[in-house]
Structure formats: structure tokens, C-alpha cells
Amino acid sequence: MADRVTAEERMLNLVLALQHTRFGLTKRQILSDVSGYSDDLAAGVSMSALERRFERDKAALRALGIDVVAADDLWAPGDNQLTRYHIDEQEYALPEDLELSGADLGLLTAAALLLSHLDASEGRRVAERARALSAPRGPDTGDGAAAPDSLQESSPELVVSGLLDVMVYEPNLRPLQAAALEGGIVRFDYHTQDHDDTTRRTVLPLAVVLVDGRWHLHGVDLDRLPKRPARLDDPELRRTFLLQRIRGVARSVDEHDLQRARVHDARVIAAVHSREEWAKAVIDDLEQLRRRLSARLRVRPGSEAAVRLGDRLHPVGGTTTAETTFDVQTTDYDLLADEITGYGDEVTVISPESLRTRVEAKQRRLLADHSTAGER
Fold first, then answer.
1. Which of 316, 299, 317, 296 is nearest to 308 (CA)?
2. pLDDT tens profile 276-303
3. Overall number of domains in the chain
4. Which of 40, 117, 201, 299 is 20 to 30 Å from the Cα of 313, by its Cα?
């Protein structure tokens, strides 16, 4: 039996599906195609029970500030079976001219992490106070007005932790951000895509950035500094690490336990730019890498893969398969292979061959693991 989809994951699937639809989806399409509803429908849960779940999810999303828009069918107004639902991204997207510094992003992340760890009653109080502070002042609204019914009826666990946890949580994020801000040196075990074993890394963090929904640490790897660097501004002296590949906990290191010359060289390298400049530099580097790494995929229309890959997919024109064949860019073929493997037969890799080989190897390993588990 497949693992049950959590409420948080179901709501995320719903958001992705309603964002990436041109004409909106009917309730029946949502309950039949979106994971978290479709699984239970196939398992025999009644349509009426799933419709009530969908209504609760809509209320919870609206309480989070994500408005699910309902539009009548032009040819059958008032027929709620033909009502189409969608999410207008422009209604809640950040202003295009908004610029956030590294410190701003750090504060927002810390706030999200704090919210995600509140219990239900604490989360409800924070949500109610936030609503009161943002409510318009006037004769019809009191200062400190109670939260709307939709917020009070929705699950507080979803309000304070659901989508926030999915979007921002990373166990080593806060210590690494603190090290980048304070100039501390950290040590951790790291697993790369080319090695099965982990290697110990000692790093002076320069910036922690979020790209493609993944947190990256950019810094000077002291263990790999040459004894006498020819040029301290050489980009080869710096490394970028994916936080999700860090094994265990990143811990601070007393620099007195390290070679004095290496610490000196690392700090000279760090002083070349400000923290904000380092953050911009690593984001630019990752964008350039993304432009160089692309893949061509065949994706089953209407599948969970099509929904989750969303606007990362660029249709391939000029062929009869333009509706299902796409190009996708990535910063890491191994991570893309992990993602594709999770979609099963919903995605087929056309090119490059190296990506196809990675996916096939992961699928064989997954099959072997399940075969071994079945023999126990």
C-alpha cells in the first residue's frame, strides 16, 4: 500500500496544480488528478467526503493568504460541478521591484522557522494578532479584531507549519546562516554526487542562498586550500555545497585548532566582497550553471510529475510530441535524477545519456532494495 499523503503535502500539491493551469480545474478534475485526493478516491473514499476535504483545504489556504478563485462555466452559470478553480499568482506575489538583502532573507527565514515550531495555541494567537495588525482601521473594524471564521475553523497546524515547513525547513540552515553573518568557521561531513562516502569539510561560510528551492552554502574550504595560493581571488578556492547533502550537524570550529596560515588566507578571500556581494555572486554562478545543464524529458500529461515540475518545463516546439516533450534546466543532474526517479513511469529521459544512466541506476537500486525487503 502506498504511503498516505499528509495534509501538508496534499495542500502543496493543490497549490501547484491550481497555479499551473491555464483555464482552471473543475472539482472533479482536482479530486481525480491531484495526489492526496486521487489516492483516496482510488482507495474507495466517497466523492462527498473528498469534496468536504477540498472545501476545508480551500479555507485553510485562504487563511494563509492564498486565494483559491472560483469561476462559473460560461455555458452553465451556477452549476457548481462545472465551476473552475485556479490561483492567481499575481494577487499574492511579491512586488517585482522588491529587493531583499541577505540579512532580510535571513530574518524572514528565521521567522518562518519560528512559526513552524509553535504549538497549535501559540500559532493561533500569532495568526490572529497578525490579522489584527494588518486589518484596516475604521468604524467597521476594531483594533485587535478576531481572526475570520475560515482561519479559526482551519487546522492551526497547517496555518503555522504546513507550507512553511515544506518551503524553508533545513536542519543546518540556522547555524550556517549564523556562521556566515558572524564570520565563524564550521565543520561537517559532506556527500557529493560522485562519491558514495562522505568527506570531512572545514569551511568559512561566505553566503547562504536559496536557489531552485534548495539551500546552498558558498564558502572557502580550508581543507582544500593550497599551501600558497597564487591568487586569493581565484574562484577555484571557493566551493558551493548543498545543505541537503550535509550528513549530520554542522558544528562550529575554534580557529585556534586550525593552521594559522589557512585561516588567514580564508579570511583574506572572504574580505574581497561583502556578504551581499558574495550572495549575488553565487546566485549568478548557479544561474550560469543552470543554463549549461539541460535535459529533455517526456512527461505524461496530467500526471503528478507534470504538476510538480510545473513552469520549469519548456515545451519542445516543431514536433508532434510538443505537448508531452519538454526541456528542463537544472543545477545538478544527480538531484534531477533523484526527482525523476520518484515519478516512476510518468517521466522518461530522452537526453542527455548521462542523466538517463543515473535514473536507470537509481531505479535498479530502488528495485533491489524493495526486492530485498520483500524476502525478509
1. 299
2. 889 888 988 998 898 899 999 999 887 7
3. 4
4. 40
State which amino acid sits at residue 268: V
Q: What is the DSSP letter of 36?
A: T
Residue 174 belongs to a domain: no
Nine-digit cell string for 60: 485553510
State whether 57 and 106 are in the same domain. no
Q: 220 lies in which domain range? A: 183-276
Residue closest to 85 by CA, chosen among 70, 73, 65: 70
Contact call for residues 127 and 147 (beta carbons, < 8 A): yes
Answer yes or no: do 245 and 272 share one domain: yes
Q: Are residues 208 and 268 in the same domain?
A: yes
Nearest to 211 by CA among 252, 244, 174, 180: 244
Cβ(208)–Cβ(176) under 8 Å?
yes
Candidates 288, 282, 169, 286; CA nearest to 219 is: 282
Cβ(64)–Cβ(163) below 8 Å: yes
Is residue 227 domain-shared with residue 269, that is, in the same domain?
A: yes
Phi, psi angles (nearest 5°) of residue 35: -60, 135
pLDDT in tens, 48-102: 999 999 999 998 888 877 888 888 766 666 677 778 888 876 666 667 777 766 6
Same domain, 58 and 16: yes
